[in-house]
């Protein structure tokens, strides 16, 4: 397929490398020229604007940081809405506000006749590169049918959960499970280390019981090594938890654990650690300089 891709950061790199390897023709845009130049090295055609990336594309894929970023890329000057075709589908991998996602999808359909699939992901850049993501999708059956062949090649699991917006609600559920557990794992690891336990054996000791999880296996070794290089940024963790808060407010749902986790990440951000990985919240427990 001809694919326009917007957002060539950590996740965008993984996505576009995978898409090029699968044989798709990818035109990529990022506001940072150095990212466009880097992507050209693995076969992405550099586009000068979102509109240029979207022109003639079968699918337009987006992976940006905030809902404002997405709205600007789609409806701003030189945005996707200026060039996307009627038969094209926009697939948004970003984590965005549910109500605004629905409104943008309706607007794009009304103005251009193009479809929209909200397809937030879990798994991080390595999974994007390897085609091993969990993709939770919302959209019409017809739009999903157009996007599915490509999405299946990017995912270890692809689940269509309902109309536009369903993917973003599911991503909020995912973030409650994942991001609060960053804090739980940090608390537990600190307790083990202070108790003199060989932390390198913890995953083997606990992994086959109820405490075991994919997150434990992925994050505890990095926490033990104090490897805080970002696979995802702490500022994004905080942004997502604030979105959980807003959705829960709209739905009148109680989220005491997520609220407490958000305040710990906010404290880390206030101390200048926004660009570390979210697992750096461990610093608050261990006494490492923060």
Write a brief structural summary.
The chain is α/β, with parallel strands linked by helices and 290 residues long. It has helices at residues 10-21, 33-40, 50-54, 67-75, 98-112, 124-130, 141-154, 166-194, 202-206, 214-224, 234-251, 256-270, 283-286, and strands at residues 2-6, 25-29, 45-46, 59-62, 89-92, 115-118, 121-122, 133-138, 155-162. The chain has 13 helices and 9 strands.
Strand neighbour order, sheet with most strands: 3-2-1-4-5-6
Count of helix runs:
13
Radius of gyration: 20 Å
Strand content: 5-15%
**Overall SS class:** alpha/beta
The count of β-strands is: 9
Major sheet attributes: 6 strands, parallel
End-to-end separation in angstroms reads: 47 Å
Order of helices and strands: EHEHEHEHEHEEHEHEHHHHHH
Low-confidence stretches: none
Mean pLDDT equals 96
Shape: globular
Helix content: 40-55%
